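re: ur question from the group chat, yeah i did fold both. here u go
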Amino acid sequence: MGEILLGLFALSIGAGFIGALSGLGGGVFIVPALVILARLPMKVAIGASLISVVATSAGASVAFVRDGWTNLKVAMVLECATVTGALAGAYLAGVVPVWILEALFALTMLQSAYFSFQKQEDDLIENGDPISKRLHLGGEVLDEDGKMVHYEVVHFPTGAGLMVMAGMMSGLLGIGSGALKVMAMDYFMHIPLKVSSATSNFMIGVTAGAGALVFLARGDVATSVAAPVALGVTVGALAGSKILPHANIKALRMSFVVILVLIAIEMGWRAVRGI
């Protein structure tokens, strides 16, 4: 039993580290790890992952907020949409067949990989859309020369719509919805990648927490699994948050694309076998 808990802890450290760097949340990596490597049932893995995602957010977001990478206004406004989706998704997870959950997981990973590959560098916007301006969602970020530059936010309605979908995927799959959140903020709303990742880390805890409450009420959370997973992901997330401000953006994007595609292939194959 001790070796199993230690193995879960080690897996979770790696998942939390990569999740914090990418802004995708440790759930993207811990769910397939628990299903494929630890051979746990999909719904048990999702329940444990949602608990761990809350821990990831709490661990990583503290440093990001302190260092000024998180856009708190964007996070607060968009969180309304993600929580709504998360509650609906967590309810559906209790009635949807496992193979459908695995197929959705694979498709989510492929979509995230596609948009990460398409956008290769930050494109700061000087004029935001009317809604974003009225809500004062713009912010400042350090450029490659170490100078503080201002950016605005665009396509707010599109971003908010994607956040509802992100919340639903969080509740369904236990991924914290960071994959779709980063895509929405980085690709559509033109928020710089590092700010998008930091803001996503701040948001995923609230989103996952809403879904976790539904799983807890339904009895789908195994504490013997959730405890070491949450602890390991927190440790990994804290380490990842220290590396992000100094990371190479292009290298990060390509690494995440490869990882996401590999996960998608494995989960897609499991879905096909489960039909």
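okk and heres the other one u asked abt
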Amino acid sequence: MKTAPDTEPAGALDLAPEHKRGFPLKSPLLAASGCWGFANEYANLIEMSLLGALITNPISRRPRRPAGGAHARSVAGGVALHTGLPNPGLSVALRRFAPKWRRMPCAVIVHLALHDAGEARKCVERLEDVENVLAIELGFRHDEDARAAAATVATAAQGLLPVVVQVPFSRTAEFSALAEQAGAQAVSVSAPPRAALTAAEGWFEGRMYGGGLCARTVQVVRELRRETDLPIIAAGGVHSAEQINALLSAGARAVQLESVVWIDAPNVNAMLQSWKH
């Protein structure tokens, strides 16, 4: 089993040094998909140049409307969200955001929410020549068919960009093995866990965000580090420098910052500054 070094020399963090384009990061701290928008929405609050990369909100091949009904519910230690992954679709996203991506002071990882391998081939091909796009992150539902997911990953991995698989929280070992076999360059742990809450209008289901999740994320990373040779990008409730260090000590090579940007932007800047070379 390969083991990541305890520390990375300045400028030497490359998650896929054998890949045709590599996967270089100037910082191990990334902006997580679903929390930071599609481009530079937080540029007035955050020192974006200190990010290793911005991971865009999920983008599908065709447009998606917001989910109907309530979108958020408070839970102990955080919030549960159900949005439906609204986005304009890839064609409009490229027209609207690619010029901004080119001017971003950090690299961009485009998060794709796809239906099948055919969509993966078409979408990845369109992203390969977009300036400053470093990699693709593929997101999957918690109930995704494993064989279909494997075909999607394998097709995306045939392209020129490194592929990160965002593994469902409840299926980390299964999807990490799938990602490794299908040719991905890294896994991100993980898509937020799901919550079900009772409400006056019936059941509310959504993904959970909040600082109370990080201890569970640390445990998942520790377990997964024994199962895969792929670099692990940790995500889930990271709201402090201490939590970042815990995840890196557990075996993560990089860490995604998510809901902390909604509630404590000054702290995000402090965390990014702490990793400035």
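fwiw on the second one: The first strand starts at residue 13 and ends at 14. The radius of gyration is 17 Å. idk if thats what u expected
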